[in-house]
Amino acid sequence: MSDPIKHECGIVFLRLLKPLDFYKKKYGTSLYALNKMFLMMQKQVNRGQDGAGIVALKFDVPPGEQYIYRKRSVEKNAIEDIFQNIQKEYLALENKKDFNKTDWLKNNFSFLGETYLGHLRYGTYGKNNIQMCHPVVRKNNWKTKNLAVAGNFNLTNVDALLNQLVGFGQSPNQKTDTVTILEKIGHFTEEENNDLYYKYKKQGHSKKKISTLIEKNLNIKSILQESAKKWDGGYVISGLWGHGDAFVLRDPNGIRPVFYYKDQEVVVVTSERPVIQTAFNVSIEKIKEITRGSALIIKKNGKTFEEEILRKKRNKGCSFERIYFSRGNDSDIYKERKKLGKRLAKKVLESINQDTKNAVFSFIPNTAEISFYGLIESLQNNFNKKIRVEKIAIKDAKLRTFITDDKNRDGLVGHVYDITHGVVKKTDNLIVLDDSIVRGTTLKKSILKILARLRPKKIVIVSSAPQIRYPDCYGIDMAKLGKLIAFKAAISLLEKKKDGKKIKEEVYQLCKLAIKTKKEKVINHVQKIYQLFSAEEISEEVARLLKPKELECELQIVFQTIEDLHISCPNHTGDWYFTGNYPTNGGAKFVNKAFVYYIEGKNKRAY
Questions:
Q1: Distance CA 379, CA 345 (A)
Q2: Domain residue limits, the chain
Q3: Local confidence band at 123 (pLDDT 50, 70, 90 cut-offs)
Q4: Integer angstrom CA distances of residue 142 from 120, 139, 190, 198, 214
Q5: Which residues contact 119 (CB under 8 A, 6 or more apart)?
Q6: Taking the complete model, does pTM exceed 0.90, yes or no?
Q7: Is the separation of the CB atoms in 445 and 410 below 8 Å?
Q8: Does domain 10-313 have CATH number 2.10.109.10?
Q9: How far apart are CA 68 and CA 246, in angstroms?
């Protein structure tokens, strides 16, 4: 993606199923779990670089001793910062005479526990400070009321959920989906505790005995059902209670990805599948996906099972995960990205009139490489074409760190990429594959300007993703409709129409009504604008808007079709940013609100 955008967070959950001494004897270190956590968090660093956090939970700690430990960081290399601090504490104990005794180390080293929860943060809402980093903790003197939560999520109805908490008598100190989720689960945790307390009190048990009975019989399914029944959004939420029970809950549409693996020694959950394969050296067949609408529940006694929490809805797994966000070393994602490239071959040939003899093929940025392989393979094998492939643009990674202030950014951004001179002739068509085009800023201000210096006959920018026409509200940092280049193109075309102003006003009024509606099904009225134009017309207008004055040759932009996207990624049909078909009512309300904000000149998110 030539436009850098932030996106989904990453989670790592690890539960040890054997006594701690087992891992010391088998693997030769007391840091077995921490080493695994570091590896899995590091392997998902693509999912979050604004901050990180980790919680360790110790089982069966005597009263008066701490049993939940947390460390968070918003440093530039947050994962390293966290684990270096943990390691310092560990190394400071090395000279103690009982250092090699697991029980002693558990009592004296903060991060030796039975359960771990890690998080990598990409902030799409709220300030980027240490308080915004997960895991977040709700403290209480009763273990079964102590709660730590981390997740990869974005809720569209935070205001309504906050009002519900106020109705419970609470007064939340922040208006964020993180606090809302923590307090919702916390509220129903307390209700479940109270119900069990009075049940066992009636049976004549002592208060101390009641606490033990609650620990064994806390109904996790009931707590999650009550907490999540009004959530609207895409989410994977993981949490653990102080006594040892834990869960990972996925939204009913399966918008956000989550995978787990269980054997005799561990239960592990991550946002991306290859992370588990790498960390535990297990085959893909042994790793499962948490069913949408279900929670993986891990009881303190080690019993692990999936439980339906919310009724499963249509599969709307995020297709952007497949195109760009998730690491490409997942075997299925690798195949899908190659297929995305292959599906573009015919349109690419048409764009250069089949003249591959006078054509140079390349890709920008590196995340487009796998799709590029697919494109080249198809041109060579299916169309029997001899292809000239060159590395045309090289990203200067060091330069970007100096681009900080708005005033000087545009001048410097043009030099973030450098070109390879002498490989493109003036008679050549230059075809460059990008995985997606969101705002088009980097294309216009950097990539196309430097490609212009090569003076080709024609430049064709090929996107392995379809036109991004609509904003996202489920965790991707593209929430402002007016920033999207496809939307700018549609508005530009609309303004050229005789009745364009009237149509824009009609859509504006419909969107304002839709925001207030209490109907079960909300209509996305922004779709009416796109229905006036063909995909080709919008592509042509995008090319016109993005063409810098320095570029003298013809510029064409080729986008993937929606149909070919679904052929390539058949199991991830979430395509709302391309089609406007949001999987939740909150999503449809959000896009209408985003259009209202655009018309009214409000430069802010609509959620």
A1: 6
A2: 10-313, 339-600
A3: low
A4: 28, 9, 10, 15, 10
A5: 9, 10, 11, 12, 48, 52, 53, 54, 133, 134, 135, 150, 151
A6: yes
A7: yes
A8: no
A9: 13
**135 secondary structure, DSSP code:** P
Q: Which helix (H) or strand (E) holds 583?
A: none
Beta bridge partners of 400: none
Strands 51-57 and 115-121: antiparallel
User: What band does 416 get if pLDDT is binned at 50, 70 and 90?
Assistant: low
Separation CA 497–CA 48 (nearest Å): 43
- Domain 339-600 sits in CATH at 3.40.50.2020
- Check whether 309 has a pLDDT greater than 90: yes
Give the DSSP letter of residue 368.
G
The residues pairing with 150 across neighbouring beta strands, listed in sequence order, are: 238
Residue 93: both structure tokens together:
């104990």
Question: Which residues, 6 or more positions from 28, have their beta carbon under 8 angstroms from its beta carbon?
Answer: none
Which amino acid would we find at residue 42?
Q
Tokens coding 167? 């109705």
**In this structure, are residues 465 and 578 in contact, taking their beta carbons and an 8 Å threshold?**
yes
Q: Quick one: what percent of the chain has pLDDT higher than 70?
A: 94
Distance CA 188, CA 161 (A): 14
